[in-house]
Design goal:
This protein is an alpha/beta fold. It is 32% helix and 20% strand. It contains eleven helices and 19 strands. Strand 18 and strand 19 form a beta hairpin. Helix 2 packs parallel to helix 5. The radius of gyration is 30 Å and the shape is extended. The mean pLDDT is 86.
């Protein structure tokens, strides 16, 4: 009997040791090999490539101050822990302003919920506890100096003050979130690019530039300036020829880009969302701007094709389902495609003008609507592509990436009939089913 008890005691002891060992190994794995699985449709809980690149490359300690009441810290820990796992230099400080008013005063806290990122040289505030705001504030805190993007106006270009469908206000907001300042300039009154402009954007002028204005852009780029020149498709209307800008076309031809006088049509399935006059980019080249863009769809509404030769390099092209038509009759018919050439066609190019550190950089795109509000707000890659262009122009190539996605609106829309059905099922149907089931069981056992 004593032998049996000793044997059972030994077995119990072994079981306890095994359980403790398993728990210990599990705790060690959880601590040193922290892995998560994100099964959400838009990878809501996975940090973007840009965040991983920026945080992972931190060379010095960055202090992040989260000002909130102590009982509200937990709602922020998940987000901050994901950042901390990328770099030991990302330090998070949870501060209750009621308990530490001295820290709140020194760091410049204004409201509960403020997130202040202090690089030691510069402080920036994230307006919300989202990846887009946090990473944007971190980039602004790390970057010293100012980068100014100048939008040319006066010849019918897209305007940054325009919040309508074809305005550039969304593009402007995206630039400012990424540490760029913006302003507008005119090359009509004074054909000279201001020295403050790090990048000049020509947003699809409806009227051609006068020669002095074109010469001003040429001089600016030759002196080491950076420019984006967006063109529109050439359409022949009864009273005018739209998109025809010979002086501007002659300028980019000197940079190795020849603009074709056509309009591109896309019959591929991917173009159905925005229409046949909005070609989808079918391929990206291995250029610093586009090498991270593979498998990301971008759209170029009202686009024209271009030919590329040195010193320019091709950036992206339309799909094989695209066609090039010259002077098509509107509205177009499928039979009109027999008169056109079949794609793919180059629609974007980049060039370095000059040599060394003083070389100017230019990007030419055969569409001006590719950064318009209705496109920049869509769940496609145009926003990433546009900001990658900006990063390349200012030689911030380490920031070229796929950025945080804005949260999707996944609210359930229910009709009046659906609400009535839901009410009947939950308030009447389900309780009635439970009652009838109970009565049935009672009756059978009676």
């Amino acid at each position: 009997m004593a032998s049996r008890q000793a044997k059972q005691g030994a077995q119990a002891g072994v079981y306890v040791i095994v359980v403790i060992a398993i728990l210990g190994v599990g705790n060690w794995l959880a601590k040193d090999y922290n892995k998560t699985l994100d099964v959400t449709a838009n990878k809501r809980f996975t940090l973007s490539d840009q965040t991983k690149k920026v945080v992972g490359n931190l060379k010095k300690e960055i202090n992040v101050y989260y000002f909130e009441k102590t009982d509200r810290y937990e709602q922020a820990r998940d987000m901050f822990d994901r950042y901390r796992n990328l770099s030991s230099n990302f330090k998070v400080n949870y501060v209750d302003p009621d308990k530490r008013p001295d820290v709140a005063r020194i760091e410049g806290m204004r409201n509960f919920g403020d997130i202040i990122i202090d690089s030691g040289v510069k402080k920036e505030t994230a307006k919300a506890l989202t990846e887009e705001e946090l990473t944007g504030a971190l980039i602004r805190a790390l970057k010293t100096g100012t980068r100014t993007v100048c939008f040319v106006e006066g010849s019918g270009e897209h305007r940054v003050s325009d919040t309508a469908r074809e305005g550039y206000s969304t593009f402007k907001d995206a630039l400012e979130k990424n540490n760029y300042k913006t302003q507008t300039i005119s090359l009509i009154e004074k054909p000279e690019v201001p020295k403050a402009c790090n990048i000049v954007i020509v947003g699809g002028p409806k009227r051609d530039y006068l020669q002095p204005a074109a010469d001003a852009l040429k001089t600016y780029v030759a002196g080491g300036g950076n420019a984006v020149v967006n063109f529109d498709a050439v359409l022949y209307l009864p009273d005018q020829k739209m998109g025809d800008t010979p002086n501007l076309s002659a300028l980019v031809a000197e940079w190795g880009v020849t603009m074709k006088g056509d309009v591109l049509i896309d019959l591929g399935s991917a173009s159905r969302l925005f229409g046949q006059l909005s070609p989808v980019i079918g391929s990206y080249e291995s250029h610093p701007i586009t090498r991270v863009m593979a498998d990301n769809a971008s759209v170029l509404p009202l686009a024209r094709s271009l030919e590329v030769k040195a010193p320019a390099e091709k950036l992206f092209s339309t799909s094989e389902g695209s066609y090039s038509l010259t002077n098509p009759k509107l509205p177009m018919k499928e039979a009109d495609l027999d008169k056109g050439a079949k794609g793919p066609f180059a629609v974007g190019a980049a060039a370095k003008i000059g040599s060394g550190n003083t070389a100017g950089r230019v990007v030419v795109v055969g569409s001006s609507n590719w950064t318009a509000n209705f496109i920049m707000a869509a769940p496609i890659a145009n926003r990433d592509l546009a900001l990658n262009v900006m990063n390349w122009l200012t030689s911030d190539e380490e920031l070229i990436s796929i950025r945080p996605k804005e949260p999707e609106d996944r609210r359930l829309s229910v009709t009046g009939g659906g609400l009535r059905a839901l009410f009947f099922f939950s308030i009447i149907g389900l309780p009635l089913f439970v009652i009838l089931t109970g009565v049935s069981v009672w009756w059978r056992r009676r």
